[in-house]
Structure formats: C-alpha cells, structure tokens
Amino acid sequence: MHSFFSLFSSDLAIDLGTANTLVFARGKGIVVNEPSIVAINKLTNEVQAVGKEAKEMLGRTPGNIVAIRPMKDGVIADFKVTEKMLNYFIHKAHNRKMLVRPRILIGVPSEITPVEKRAVQDSAYRAKASEVHLVEQGMVAAIGAGLPITEPSGNMVVDIGGGTTDIAVISLSGIVYSRSVRVAGNEMDDAIMHYLKRKHNLLIGERTAEQIKIELGSAYALDKPITMEIKGRNLIEGLPKTITVGNEEIQEALSECVETIMNAIRVALERTPPELSADISDRGIVLTGGGALLKNLDRRIREETGLPVSIADEPLLSVVLGTGKMLSDFKLLRKVSLE
Length: 339
Fold this sequence. Notes:
alpha+beta; Nucleotidyltransferase, domain 5; Actin, Chain A, domain 4; 5-stranded mixed β-sheet; flat
C-alpha cells in the first residue's frame, strides 16, 4: 500500500461505461468524455476510430469497417477491443505521452463476477497501468453526487447508466445493500427499436433510437404532448419512410424497462435495515447516470415510493467525479476498493 503515498499527477479515474467512457486526471478534471465505441477495419484489424468519430460511423460503415461497442451491460464483452479503447483514452488523457504508467481507478457494477473483474483489471494493465483499483459504481456515484457517505446515516443512490442500473444504500463509507440490474439506457434504445418495428413496420438504427429516447422518452405522462418526425426504412416496401410519433407511444415502449428499474428500487427499500430506512425517508433517493435524465422518472419514483427524489447536479458525470475524488483521498479508497 506504500505506493499510495507517492501520488503522481498521472493518476487517472475512469468511468468505463457501456455507452460512454469518461476519464478524470488528477489535477486536471475530466479530460476525456467520449462514446465507448471503436471502429475497426476487418481486413487489417487496425483501429480506424475511437469514441466520437467511431460513433458517427455507427450503422454507416462500409463492409470492411465495423463499429464495435466492446462493453455490454457494464462489463467487458470484447477484451481485445476494450484494451485498444482504453489505450487510446489513456494516451489522450496524457496528451499522447508514451512513457506514463498511470495508476488507474475504475468504477464497476456491484454484481460483477470475479471473471469480469479480472477482465477489467487485465485490460487496464495491458493498457500500461502501473496499478489498478476497482470501486463499486453505486459508491462512487454517491460520492460524485455529493452525498455525505462517511456519516452514520443512510443514503440511497440509483445510478442508471448505459448498460446497468446500480442501486446502493450507503452508510459509514460502506455499502449496506447493493444491486445491479442489467436494464438501463441501451435496453431503452432497444425497446424503442422493437416497438417501432412491431407497431409501424419501421426499421431504425441505434443512434435514431437514442435521439427519440432523449426527445420523447418519459417514465410518466407528460403535461404537454410532444411529437417527433422519425425517419427509417419501411420493412414491407424496403423504402425510406418518415412517420410522426408522439411521446405516449414512446412511454409505452419504455414501460417495461422503467418497471424493471422500479422493481429493483422497491426490493432495495425492502432489504434496507429499518434505522437506515428512516434516514432514506428523510433524505430521499438520489438519481445519477444518463438514465436519470429520462423525463418524469423522478416523479414516477416519487409517486410509487412516497419518498423525496432528487437528480444529481451533473448526473452523467457523477461516477467519474466520485472516482476522481478518490484519487486524492486514499484513506477512503482503501475502505471502499474491491480488493
């Protein structure tokens, strides 16, 4: 553990997400915030683009280039590609300096298996890390959202990312209860794609689905209806087609995903010790992650649980900011890292 004391400024905190990867450099703040996508040339096996550039290529690549999302459900699905992606982001964070061997902290879902844990560590070591520490996403999301996690009172955080929804009840710097369900932003995009295919015979890609989720998606009826024009391919005629869809339809498309998240929250509340339940009923639930931005999700949780619900100031950044805070607080890191 002595190496903790020799803190260098090259240390990095990484939120290795299914949808986006964020990198926080000590003393600099967030230096990388890009989609977790890699475009690879199948003929030469070389990386063509990573992050934003690769996302632009999603669904638009010629035959020899494939855009891959190497993370699935918050864990590594494609080991080699994740390593290439991490390498790229670490170099980018250090302005392409080749000799740096940073210490790296990575947030992972709470129900990650030992094999999945190993894969994350190995990928980071192969991307030239000198040390790798893993911390639970629920915990770092709570720190990033500014919750007083070291106090002897219950805090509940729901982190809805791209691949997983992590729910954690935290007290005295420890996780009292945590659960991870593999339903989150990407699952919502899929639900929208399936719905439009089934209802309107319209085929759309994931970028369009994400756009629809952001503009029309809601967890609870909206006060004012909104509509959007959606372009895609008609499945029957095979020709491009434009339709207009309203928010009620998208709410219906997302209802199953939202219900799964609601159930996980209910179970977490049932399993929380009574003393901490009392704290949570005062303080309420804090939502972080991109999924926290789904319209009226806080209202739906409030109505169904009767608890106060708030959204973190910068929900998309909570995990990486929380992980970043730990770079300079190694006492806390020692308490919470998954060794």
